Structure formats: C-alpha cells, structure tokens
Task: structure prediction
Amino acid sequence: MDILTLTIDGVQVKAPKGEKLLWAALDNGIYIPNLCAIRGMEEPFAGCRLCFVDIEGRHEPVTACTEPVTEGMLVHTNTPRVNRLRRTAAELLIAAHHVDCRKCPKNRNCELQRIAAYLGLKLKPQRLRKIERSLPIDTSHPCFILDRNKCILCGKCVWVCNERLGALDFVFRGFDTMISTFYGESLAESDCEYCGECVAVCPVGALIPK
Ligand code: FES
Result:
C-alpha cells in the first residue's frame, strides 16, 4: 500500500493513497467537524457541509470527506472562510432541528451538540429564524423510535440500511425531504429486520432504541 505524507495545520501526517482527507485528519487526532461521513462510503454524500477545509493552491474550500489525500498536500482546517462556511452550515442544521436536549435520550452524546460547542454556537438559532416542523414520529417498531423532527438528514441511516435491506430512504424534495420507509409504511410494517445499524449511526436523537 502506498503511504503518502501531507501536512494538516502544520502537523505532518501519513495516510494511505486513496484515503479521504477527513479520515486522514481524524486518524491523526486532528478534528474536523462532520456529520454525514461514514468510512468506506465510495461516494460520500457530503450533505452536511461541515467538513470544509482549505488546501493551498485551491481557490475555494473543499469538503474533507470527498477529497482524496495527495503527496505533499498542505491543509488548513481553521481559516476564517472555512469557519464562516461551517458555522453557517451548522446554524442551518440547528434552525431546522427540534431542540429539546434536556428530554432527549441523546443528550450529552449528540454530535450536533458537540459541533455547536466546538464552533461556539448556541443550540438556539441566533441569526436564523427557527423552523419548527411537525413531522410524524414513528413509534410502531418494537425496538426503536424514528423522530423525524430531530433528523438532520445526514443520510447515515439510509446508507447503512441500503447496505443490507434498503428499508429506509429519503422521500420528497427540498424543505419537505425526510426519511421514510418504502411506500411510507410504518417501521413495523416495513422490511426492517432490526439489525440496529441505523440507530447506531444516527448522530442525533432521531433514531433511538426503545
Ligand atoms: S462530513 Fe463532509 S459534508 Fe458532511
């Protein structure tokens, strides 16, 4: 396996050829906020827009989850424009997320909380209008609950489910996009065999065990 050397925030790190920059950074203890990436995804979804970094020689920031490492790459994870982009992306997620941390089973174990703290953001939108949605909460399954109001549409549950069964997917478009089963049936009526993978990868409190 070819091993490449690159520099992230002044620290020289090594990563296998073909590795995405996000994993090269995380494996070397350099945190880059991320919500939608799963290691091993051939075509990362890149939907959360939180993992922007600057690479010397590039005019625009790039998403670290989609960018393969190259020999000699010089990466900066904390430039002013990168921070502006990721703060805006996080603020949009917070504005559309039903924030009820004290009652949420994921409280203190939630990636959105962690990222908000990292970026110095409050979990109440400051600049953007709060978007309250009243989407159906599916409690039909004997093992877990799907609360779409807390879903941040990272797509991780869809991806892991598609690796096995394909019981979950995105439906509708734009602001109406949500996670659903085939034909919109309840989770109990769906093909779900409860492997538990979707619950394990959910970074917030949208999929929680009963
Ligand atoms: S982790 Fe890269 S866009 Fe979500």
